[in-house]
Amino acid sequence: MTAFPRYRALLRQQLILQRVDIALLTILAALAAPAALITARAFDTSLGSAERLLATNAMLAAFSTLHLVASAIFLVVRAYSADAAVRHTYAASLPIERGRYALLRAATGLTLGLLPLAGFAIGVAVVTAGVALPPALYAYPVALVCRYALAFVVTFALAFALQYGAGRRASRIAVTMILVLTLTVVFAEIAEQPNILPSIGRVLVSPWSPLSVFAAEWKLFDV
Amino acid sequence: MSESVIRLSGVTYRAGRDFAIQNLSLAVPRGAVYGFLGPNGSGKTTTIRLLLGMLRADAGRIDVLGHRVPEEIHRALGRIGYVPERGHLWPHLTIEQTLATHAAFFATWDATRAEELRRRFDLRLSQRISALSKGENGKLMMLLALATQPELLVLDEPTDGLDPVVRRDVLATLVEYVATTQASVLISSHLVHEQERICDWVGVMDRGALIAEVPMQEFRSGIKRLRVGNVPAVVDAAPFALLSREMGVGRAETWVVRGWQATHAEWISAQGGALRDVESLDLEESFVELLRSGRPTEGTR
Fold it and tell me: pLDDT tens for residues B279-289?
């Protein structure tokens, strides 16, 4: 039996499970760029047109990063939870190696991630087409969408590895990591010691790390 | 014993502090309908999950349809129809979507047979799994198991909690399938009468150990209740196993024995005893007596 019918079956299963989530994520992604543009204009009317467009970048970067991280985690966790809710019995009774099943799950999650990506691309394209660029300012919609896609794949891969590697303990591990980081910052503040979080952040996004995709500039408009 | 479709040898598995499968050896002959009996919590479901590779044994060896478990279980699963103890299907799918998903994973899926069973079980394609009654869920799981045309059916309490009508439908369909395909079946249940009707082998689990594994005929005919007068002083050397003994009036006793044969009456006479009555036990009584014999503190001896 070839892998494609199985992939298609699992894709449909996950799409039915997450159709509302995916629709919302796609709509939010599509609204990201227009909302960032409108907000940048509304916040500071004293800015010139070039400055306003550049101010859009920061907002769009923050929103799109949050959005893609949430989308990736949501796609991984919800699919896993559907199996966990029936104690993985159905998945374990299928005539397929567990590793291959996990690969199919990864493939379906990544495929469904294309929908929010498409939404994001549409939003970016609409803003790019609707804005009159001042001299010396250019739009980079393709680069931004590619960056979004790459960052989504990296986040998805990390979330997937944690979820399918640690199983039910994944959420506990994630919460523990967040707690440790938070406590580190709090204790550093209390003891008036240098905060090590920026150093950790620098290591995580150093050029050799896949997370470096988050560190680079997320700019729709630039010179 | 002929070739086995399931063979467990010296399997040990510990689940927490209070329960363990201990050195379990079991064999299901090809073509047999093997009744896997035992009270709740005796280890039947754990054994089934072990032999399907859902749990990993701490020690011992498991082979199913000639494949080592858990390493090669995915090769065997395509030839196994499995009905678990509890509903295991994705609740957000409809029956139609569930059938399509299942078909995508089983090369032997018989769509015509699936449709025939769906009509027989009166299941609507548009019904959502989460909205199915327990009976409908049981029928759907049996449909999924049978429509893959399995060589081996592993059924974990398939009729537990079903009403009599649904139970009869499900069992009739199972018996029909086995009769036409000669498939092997491992069916676990604590509904002993049900097993008596359909099984030709029986294995009895209690507290994580297999305490009996015999052909059904032998199990049924081999356990008897005897009324004995002038009870012999020494019964240790008896040619049968004395499962329980109950004091009667005077020197009379009621014995429950295993491995009884008509010629054993002579042994009782030779010891000075008087055999007054031999009564056959039905499977449920035999099962209860067997369990009691393995639990000395609860016995009547």
Answer: 888 878 888 88
